[in-house]
Write a structure and sequence with these properties.
The complex is a heterodimer. By secondary structure, chain A is α+β, with helices and mostly antiparallel strands. Chain A is 39% helix and 29% strand. Chain A has one domain (3-154): Jelly Rolls. In chain B, the strands form six sheets. In chain B, strands 8-15-16-5-17-18 form a six-stranded mixed sheet, sandwiched between helices. Chain B has a four-stranded antiparallel sheet with strand order 4-3-6-7, covered by helices on one side. Chain B is extended. Chain B starts with a helix and ends with a helix. The chains are: A alpha+beta, B alpha/beta. Chain A binds chain B through residues 1-4, 6, 22-23, 25-26, 29-30, 32-37, 40, 42, 104, 112, 115, 119, and chain B through 599, 663, 666-671, 675, 677, 680-681, 725-730, 784-788.
């Protein structure tokens, strides 16, 4: 797997899709390929977020550590990005990410990434666009969910079904 | 040698009974009282002649006698040629009588010539002996003088060093006094010798003709009057010159120390101007000296030539008138000519003497600051240094600064020597000065400090420096290893003389004899000076453990362990340890296998390409020793290039370089040149980008084959830095790796023998002296891109070392770390810890800390405080704290303000509303 292939993978991530090729290659170059054995944590819930991961090989599980014990809420496979919120804002991890089998991922560190965003406004714009899209779809989902809740309340039915999301 | 051994072993008997090798333990009753010989206290005489007479009168007399006894031979050697010419060559009456024998002309000539040759030899030998002897006297005296200066320097009060820069002192001890050596040899000999000659000749002239003789020396009084007058002014100027040159030294030192400020504030031009100004002053002074010196010379010569003028005019007149015989005039003229040489010598000597006198006086003047420690206190070696017990009592102690402001004002308190006391106060409250007073590093202006009933003012440094520990906020570490710096506190006098074989022993004896002849200390630097007993241990092994214990208490162990892992070991010096470290290498490997984490370290395998190492490392497959095979410049190495050419790899690597360059220029184009990404990620510096861009453009047209040598070299250097696992540029694919492996083999096989010594090749069965301890044990690279590698591998390594009991050996290597000038290779926190460790090592009865942990962060501070107090339990601790809140755990707290002791008591009692302590706490 070479830089070019990693670049191709990154380009397929909607958030990075519009970024200039040279910049995105630099993002790939600055990132680190990391291997995780089965069961190893890519990140731990509650830790400060310092990197996003693009899964190159294998699968990871998103695990919520609740009072009732860990709960796997989603499984994410190759070519997908996880924990990307961490590199955009200062939050702690809201879930753990665990390797399911052997995983190879591209670790995109927050600090250089943020610097690039700051210095290349075009990058910021394309990321902003993607976030706006997401917000839009989240809003749509939310209103759908709210009307669902209202409908169920009115009908005094069962509690709303869980929507998965990490 | 004998006295030395006696001194050392008696000191040993005092301080370490029973620990002298081969000597049975002696009880105090049995011990033969044999006080160690304290080194001589050397004083400085006020004038150079007094100094010479006091220390070398006997030699000076000897020198004179030697010179006098050379006179007859000199006289004969001057007389003999006349005899040879007149009687042997031009003689008519043969056979000649000589020592009762009769000789014909030729044998007579030969015998006289042989005698002449013998005399030449004897005169030469005399000259050689006299000059050597003069040199010896001069050099010994110079050595004595320098030694005295240095000894005095060690007695200077601290305040001196606050006000004066060492740059002024250094030239005094080094360059300025250098000329004294030459002068001292001549001091008596030359004036007496030349003066004697002069007098003899004058006498001879008077016997010939009193009037003309009087005429010949008539102008001497004039010269004798004028020359000192002229010289006086030159002397004044010379003094000024010396002072101004010292200013130059001062400026240079200040600029070196303040280089940051000079650049940060752009005072470059100011500094240059100031320096030029001082140089200008020196120029003026020196030029003035030249003018006066040469004027004096001119006057001298003129007066010197006046005498012949009188001879020719007056004498000639007398001859013409018949009042003087022609022969007498010639004789006197010749004699007068001979007179000129000793007279000139005397005048020159006078100038040198004046110069030396001034130099001496000026240096001595600088070495008399007020408030010097009595050298006797500094050097005294008590028969036994007893532990201090009882209490430290401070009675009405004040300290005035030089400008008479009172920084410590009538402070009184007592501290039991098993008590821990904190002193707090704002900066400027006098707390730091108080700490200096308590360690007797400053002397009270009034009042008295006693410890166990002994007056501080009368205690020798041997007691204070061995029984009281002191550590400051800005401790000084000497250049050398960390161990040297720690052991400093145990090296007071030589305790165990070294073993010398006969040759070395004789040489050592000669050195000692010389040292004594110059009034220098005659201790042996090669002796073992370490006082194990005062560290509470029996020998080196226990001492190492004790150091480790102290380091642990000071939370300093991890740092030293880290330094040890990064340090190197000489397997030739410690073969056993190297062997054990090799075992650790194997154990680590097994451990990685056992835990199933072999993927975290990629071991060096001669048969495999190491994808976590650079191309350069893979090619060299060893650690460079010296600069020849430095990894950064390996692409330029001729041996490497030859192999690459042979294997046809050069072109491919140049092409690889082109790809790297292309990727880099694409990715980094548009970034501002100062961007930190260049530093962090790029193979190419920002300033090189345009150059590479033009090389790339050239390659675009004709391929890499069309590039010139320089361009190809430039590209070739790039792939050498590539790490396959890290830089995923798609260049180091399997095929390329195989070819590089082949190059590795070819390189090693074809390497000429002389280059082999420049590389320590990786060898699984050998300890690598050029590599660090850690690299030796890993024997490979920590893998990139394995999630835990960076945390896990050091942990496993630590476990392995622990299991093999090698941790202390690693620490030992860490202690050999060179701390750099003034400890600059350590952080402030590390230096502070080292200084405290040093103070603890001698197990002081009282430890004084002067804001000694100010460079530590809060958690470390707490740990160190706890460890320290535990260590000092049952002994005295006085801790001047930089923050009031740190006093919380102290049973007793003294609060200083405005030089006065304002409050004291338990911390809880003091920490009440509106108290000074509460105010100090609030201010934090």
């Amino acid at each position: 797997m070479s830089l070019v292939q990693e670049y191709e993978l990154l380009r397929r991530v909607p958030m990075f899709a519009d970024i200039e090729p040279a910049r995105l290659k630099l993002v790939a170059f600055m990132s680190e390929r990391v291997g995780f054995d089965d069961g190893k944590l890519l990140c731990r819930q509650g830790d400060p977020g310092d990197a996003a991961y693009l899964i190159i090989e294998g699968e990871v599980e998103i695990v919520l550590e609740g009072p009732a014990g860990p709960l796997t809420v989603a499984t994410i496979g190759a070519n997908e990005i996880v924990a990307e919120m961490a590199i955009l804002c200062d939050t702690t991890r809201n879930a753990s990410v665990r390797a399911k089998g052997r995983v190879v991922a591209l670790r995109i560190s927050k600090e250089p990434f943020v610097r690039m965003v700051r210095e290349f406004p075009a990058m910021a714009v394309s990321i902003m666009r993607e976030l706006a899209n997401r917000l839009d779809s989240t809003n749509t989902q939310l209103s759908a969910a709210l009307s669902e809740v209202r409908r169920l309340r009115e009908g005094a039915g069962a509690p709303a079904s869980q929507e998965a999301g990490a | 040698m004998k006295a030395m051994t006696a001194a050392a072993s008696s000191a040993d008997a005092v301080l370490r009974p029973g620990l002298l090798p081969g000597v049975a333990p002696q009880s105090d009753a049995e011990r033969v009282p044999q006080p160690p010989i304290p080194p001589e206290v050397s004083n400085l005489e006020s004038s150079v002649y007094r100094f010479i007479l006091k220390h070398s009168m006997k030699q000076q007399i000897l020198l004179l006698l030697l010179t006098l006894s050379s006179f007859p031979f000199l006289y004969y050697s001057l007389d003999l040629p006349k005899t040879i010419v007149n009687r042997a060559i031009g003689g008519k009456h043969f056979p000649e009588q000589l020592l009762g024998f009769e000789f014909d002309q030729v044998p007579y000539l030969m015998i006289l010539c042989a005698a002449f040759l013998a005399l030449v030899f004897i005169n030469g030998a005399f000259k050689y002996a006299i000059n050597t002897f003069k040199g010896q006297i001069g050099e010994r005296m110079l050595r004595r003088f320098r030694y005295s200066l240095y000894q005095r320097l060690l007695c200077f009060p601290l305040s001196y060093f606050h006000k004066n820069s060492s740059a002024q002192i250094i030239p005094m001890i080094t360059v300025e006094c250098e000329q004294l050596g030459g002068f001292i040899g001549d001091a008596f000999n030359l004036p007496l010798f030349q003066g004697g000659q002069l007098l003899t000749m004058i006498l001879f002239m008077f016997m010939q003709d009193p009037i003309l003789a009087a005429a010949a020396i008539a102008l001497y009084p004039v010269q004798g009057y004028i020359i000192p007058k002229l010289q006086f002014k030159v002397n004044q100027l010379a003094k000024q010159r010396v002072r101004t040159v010292r200013q130059v030294a001062d400026r240079v030192q200040e600029s070196a120390a303040g280089i940051v400020e000079i650049q940060a504030n752009d005072t470059v031009k100011l500094n240059l101007t100031d320096f030029a100004h001082v140089l200008g002053r020196i120029y003026d002074i020196r030029f003035e000296i030249y003018k006066r010196k040469f004027f004096a010379k001119f006057l001298n010569n003129f007066i010197g030539q006046l005498t012949p003028f009188f001879f020719y005019s007056l004498g000639g007149y007398l001859v013409i008138k018949g009042d003087l015989s022609f022969g007498a005039l010639v004789a006197i003229t010749v004699a007068q000519k001979d007179l000129a040489s000793p007279w000139k010598e005397l005048l020159d000597f006078y100038q040198i003497k004046e110069n030396s006198r001034i130099t001496y006086e000026q240096i001595v003047e600088q070495f008399q600051p007020s408030g010097m420690t009595d050298a006797k206190l500094l050097l005294a070696e008590p028969e036994q240094v007893m532990p201090l017990t009882g209490e430290l009592s401070v009675a009405n102690v004040s300290l005035d600064e030089d400008d008479k402001s009172r920084v410590v004002d009538a402070v009184s308190f007592t501290v039991q020597l098993d008590e821990h006391v904190a002193i707090i106060g704002q900066s400027g409250s006098g707390k730091s000065e108080l700490a200096l007073l308590l360690a007797r590093l400053a002397r009270p202006s009034s009042g008295r400090i006693t410890v166990g009933g002994l007056d501080f003012a009368e205690l020798p440094v041997a007691v204070i420096g061995r029984r009281i520990g002191y550590a400051a906020a800005m401790p000084y570490l000497f250049a050398g290893t960390l161990r040297d710096n720690l052991l400093l506190a145990l090296r007071h006098i030589p305790l165990r003389p070294p073993e010398y074989d006969e040759t070395l022993g004789r040489e050592r004896e000669r050195q000692l004899y010389e040292a004594r002849r110059s009034g220098n200390i005659d201790f042996d630097l090669q002796a073992d000076w370490i006082d194990y007993r005062s560290a509470g241990v029996s020998g080196p092994a226990e001492l190492t453990e004790r150091i480790a214990e102290i380091l642990r208490r000071l939370d300093f162990e991890e740092d030293i362990y880290g330094l040890g892992l990064r340090g190197r070991l000489d397997p030739a010096a410690q073969p056993e340890l190297a062997q054990r470290l090799l075992e650790a290498r194997r154990a680590l490997e097994q451990r990685l296998v056992a835990e199933g984490i072999t993927n975290l370290v990629e071991t060096y395998d001669p048969e495999r390409y190491n994808s976590n190492a650079t191309v350069a490392e893979n090619l060299l497959f060893g650690t460079p020793i010296g600069p020849t095979f430095e990894l950064d410049a390996l692409a330029d190495n001729i041996h490497v290039r030859r192999v690459l050419d042979q294997l046809g790899l050069t072109d491919d690597l140049v092409e690889a370089g082109r790809q790297v360059a292309a990727t880099m220029t694409e990715m980094f184009a548009g970034l501002p040149p100062e961007h930190e990404f260049f530093e962090q990620f790029s193979f190419i510096g920002a300033h090189e980008l345009p150059e590479f861009a033009s090389v790339l453009a050239a390659a675009e047209n004709g391929g890499v084959g069309g590039l010139d040598r320089q361009q190809r070299d430039k590209l070739l250097s790039l792939p050498f830095k590539l790490i396959a696992a890290r830089h995923r540029l798609g260049i180091l694919e399997e095929g390329m790796q195989q070819r590089l492996l082949e190059a590795r083999r070819a390189f090693r096989e074809s390497l000429p023998d002389e280059a082999r010594s420049q590389i320590e090749f990786f060898d699984p069965a050998r300890y690598n002296a050029a590599a660090s301890l850690q690299d030796n044990m890993l024997f490979g690279k920590i893998a990139y891109g394995e999630a835990d590698a960076v945390a896990r591998v050091p942990q496993v390594l630590r476990d392995v070392l622990e299991a093999l009991s090698l941790r202390s050996a690693v620490m030992d290597v860490g202690l050999d770390y060179h701390v750099g000038t003034a400890g600059s290779r350590l952080s402030l926190a590390q230096r502070q810890r080292a200084a405290i460790a040093r103070a603890l090592l001698k197990r002081p009865d009282l430890l004084i800390l002067n804001e000694a942990t100010s460079g530590l962060d809060a958690p470390a501070q707490t740990k160190v405080a706890a460890g320290l107090r535990e260590e000092m339990a049952g002994r005295g601790l006085i801790w001047v704290l930089h923050r009031a809140s740190l006093a919380r755990n102290f049973a007793r707290v003294l609060v200083m303000s405005g030089g006065k002791l304002q409050e004291q008591g338990r911390f809880e009692e003091l920490d009440r509303k509106d108290s000074l302590t509460a105010l100090l706490m609030a201010a934090e």
